[in-house]
């Protein structure tokens, strides 16, 4: 069993890269990919922790992508993290994230939520501050009973505490990943909130730009959705990948490898995806 989507303390996860490898070994995963949001800073520690062990560490990243409906994220694997254009674009993304976070803090303060930047930063671990960290402060202070309530009422798109930020287009994200020697995969397609026909067309369009795969196996995909995405991926000649999107304590109930309990990403997916490198 493999898991090609998880997060560490370098973005919005609660486990360090070393702890992720330890957990993967404990549950018997043969491979695990670290795909932190808009940063590759945790990869050296992740790869070092797996060296010589039974778990194959796959270096990755999850990039936020602009779209007209829902939420789109692009996963990249095996990229050269020193690629100059990749470094430049990711700095641009992180700078935009910082400006967005400051704007969100101002909005939340104006709404009557007493929180400081230091409090939000304290939940962010080593690197990127994101909306889940604002949610954690809100939970700690009793402003929301859980993460879902914090997002549904205040932090989600279009909600009173939300502020937008710059994102790459899907085509640019795919090209950036490929230019850095990696392979690009569309993450959790259900989050786009579009119909089957539109989704099938999107798979074909992105495949033409160099997309290598699509995350068909995912914690929040129903059996019917998984079946639909597998059929669409086959028609578009895309590798059907998968992962739990594990965050640890930030997303209770989702376990590494198995998601909500029924996730099982086939081992052969990794070899199929790697064959698309270069």
Question: What is the fold's blueprint, element by element?
Answer:
Layout: E1 2-3, H1 17-27, E2 31-34, H2 43-50, E3 56-65, E4 72-77, H3 84-110, H4 117-122, H5 131-140, H6 147-155, H7 170-179, E5 183-186, H8 196-209, E6 213-218, H9 223-235, E7 239-243, H10 268-274
Parallel strand pairs: 1-2, 2-3, 5-6, 6-7
Antiparallel strand pairs: 3-4, 4-5
Helix pairs in contact: 1-2, 5-6, 8-9
CATH superfamily of the largest domain: Metal-dependent hydrolases
The CATH architecture name of the largest domain reads Alpha-Beta Barrel
- What is the first-to-last residue Cα distance? 25 Å
Average pLDDT: 93
What would you say this structure looks like, in words?
The protein has 278 residues and is α/β, with parallel strands linked by helices. The protein folds into two domains: 2-89 and 170-274, Metal-dependent hydrolases (TIM Barrel, Alpha-Beta Barrel); 92-155, DNA polymerase, domain 1 (Orthogonal Bundle), CATH 1.10.150.650. It has helices spanning 17-27, 43-50, 84-110, 117-122, 131-140, 147-155, 170-179, 196-209, 223-235, 268-274, and strands at residues 2-3, 31-34, 56-65, 72-77, 183-186, 213-218, 239-243. The chain has a seven-stranded mixed beta sheet.
């Amino acid at each position: 069993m493999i898991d090609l989507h998880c997060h560490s303390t370098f973005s919005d996860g609660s486990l360090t890269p070393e702890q992720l490898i330890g957990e993967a070994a404990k549950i018997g995963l043969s491979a695990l990919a670290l795909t932190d949001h808009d940063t590759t800073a945790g990869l050296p520690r992740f790869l070092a922790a797996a060296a010589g062990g039974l778990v194959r560490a796959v270096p990755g990243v999850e990039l936020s992508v602009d779209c007209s409906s829902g939420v789109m994220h692009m996963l990249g694997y095996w990229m050269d993290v020193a690629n100059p254009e990749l470094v430049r674009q990711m700095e641009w993304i992180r700078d935009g994230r910082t400006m967005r976070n400051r704007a969100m803090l101002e909005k939340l303060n104006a709404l009557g939520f007493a929180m400081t930047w230091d409090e939000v930063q304290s939940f962010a671990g080593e690197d990127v501050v994101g909306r889940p960290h604002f949610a954690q402060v809100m939970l700690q202070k009793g402003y929301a009973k859980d993460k879902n309530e914090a997002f549904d009422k205040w932090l989600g798109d279009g909600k009173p505490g939300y502020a937008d930020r710059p994102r790459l287009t899907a085509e640019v994200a795919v090209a950036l990943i490929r230019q850095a020697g990696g392979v690009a995969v569309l993450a959790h397609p259900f989050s786009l909130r579009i119909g089957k026909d539109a989704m099938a067309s999107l798979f074909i369009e992105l495949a033409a730009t160099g997309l290598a795969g699509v995350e068909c196996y995912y914690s929040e995909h129903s059996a019917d959705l998984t079946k639909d995405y597998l059929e669409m991926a086959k028609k578009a000649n895309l590798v059907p990948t998968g992962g739990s999107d594990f965050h640890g304590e930030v997303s209770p109930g989702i376990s590494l490898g198995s998601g909500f309990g029924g996730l099982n990403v086939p081992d052969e997916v990794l070899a199929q995806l790697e064959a698309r490198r270069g």
